[in-house]
Amino acid sequence: MRLTRFVVAVVTAVLTVLPMTGAAAAAPVERGAVALDQISIGTHNAFRGAGSFERFAGVIGWQEVNEPADRAKLDNRLGAEYSTFYPADGPAKAVPISWRVERFQKVGSGSVRTHDGEAGVTPARYVNWVILELRGPGTRFIVVNTHFISGAWSGHPERQARWNRHYQILRDKVAELRQNHPQQPIFVVGDMNRHQAMDLPAPIQYVPVQGGGQVPLDHMYAPSNISHTQVQRQPQWGSDHHAYLMYATF
Predict the structure, then answer these.
(1) What pLDDT digit, counting tens, does each position of 110-146 carry?
(2) Which residue, of 37, 78, 79, 88, is most buried by count of CB atoms within 10 Å of its CB?
(3) How many domains does the chain fold into?
(4) How many CB atoms lie within 10 A of CB 24?
(5) Which residues lie below 8 Å from residue 74, measured CB to CB, with a gap of 6+?
(6) Quick one: which of 165, 183, 186, 164 has its CA closest to 174?
């Protein structure tokens, strides 16, 4: 018994001081790779800049930030704690994406027009996205933000062709992002202007609002293969839309 204990003690001491190689050396890396990180994602239609642009999530997709004055208000309200992606195309700037610079850094972004505008009907519409990296662990994820034409499903059926074109371009862009970045979770947020969940490429699914009820005009989508909460309805904060918030862990 004493000899056995002595051998175990010696072997333990040797393994402690010798450098690890092969599979044994990789184990700590694997444990670090699956470390859990929680993020918060929000969406809010700012009602043509009338909203107060609250700092209610780590990443926020905004809609109706239409004018330069609206964007100046957003930047001033969020301050140095956030950075915001404004695409180069003027009308696309109405659907920016903001993130906390202390937690995230942008490593990619883009924008695509879904259809042209028409005076008295709709501005040109866009799908915008950012690829963000979590500072420290280096985990990357993608947030897509958009705003569909209004009234297509409530009094203006002649607008449905534009809505459907927007939907197809959104689906195609999400599928492309998933193909190009298969390891990065994709979240989709925005004002979809329809009380019906959309079908997006798997595993991205609509996330219902806590408490049930009708699907709101503002939607949030997340991968079904990662842990996330239901969507939480927030105050309107000066807008005619509620803000919405969810948490995800990966």
Answers:
(1) 999 999 999 999 999 999 999 999 999 999 999 999 9
(2) 78
(3) 1
(4) 9
(5) 46, 49, 53, 62, 65, 84, 96, 98
(6) 186
In the block, residue with structure tokens 């204990």: 5
Residue 72: give its domain's CATH number.
3.60.10.10
3-state SS assignment for residue 160: helix
Give a yes or no: residue 19 inside a domain: no
Could you please report the per-residue DSSP string of 192-212?
--SSSPPP-STTEEE-PBTT-
Would you call the peptide bond into 68 cis, given omega within 30 degrees of 0 as the criterion? no
The model's pLDDT over 192-208, given as tens digits with 9 standing for 90+, comes to 999 999 999 999 999 99
Whole-angstrom distance, CA of residue 131 vs CA of residue 37? 16
- Alpha helix segments (H runs only) across the chain: 2-17, 22-33, 68-78, 160-180
Residue 149: name the closest of 175, 110, 116 by CA: 116
Model pTM score: 0.86
**Dihedral angle of Cα 30, 33, 34, 39, to the nearest 10 degrees:** 170
Handedness of CA 131, 124, 83, 167 (dihedral sign): negative
3-state secondary structure at position 215:
coil
Q: Which string of DSSP letters, residue by residue, matches 47-82? A: TTTTS-----SSEEEEE---SHHHHHHHHHHHGGGE
Sign of the dihedral through C-alpha 177, 231, 128, 121 = positive
- In a domain, residue 16? The reply is no
